[in-house]
Amino acid sequence: MARRNDVRPIVKLRSTGGSGYTYVTRKNRRNNPDRLVVRKYDPVLRRHVDFRDER
């Protein structure tokens, strides 16, 4: 079975702390049509910061 990439695309989450660190995840485009913002750990800065969906 193939995945439907139009419903759950792969997105990069880039750190807003300026370190350039990224996470890769999938998001549901129907539930979250805007940019995704998640608070995660940035190992370069060694603290939690907001990670924003990069297009």
UniProtKB/TrEMBL annotation:
Keyword Transmembrane helix among UniProt keywords: no
Keyword Ribonucleoprotein: yes
Domain of life, source organism: Bacteria
Gene Ontology cellular component terms for the protein in this record: ribosome
One Pfam family cited in the UniProt record for this chain: Ribosomal_L33
Keywords annotated in UniProt: Ribonucleoprotein, Ribosomal protein
PANTHER family noted in UniProt: 54S RIBOSOMAL PROTEIN L39, MITOCHONDRIAL, LARGE RIBOSOMAL SUBUNIT PROTEIN BL33M
Protein's name in the database: Large ribosomal subunit protein bL33
Species for this entry: Plantactinospora endophytica
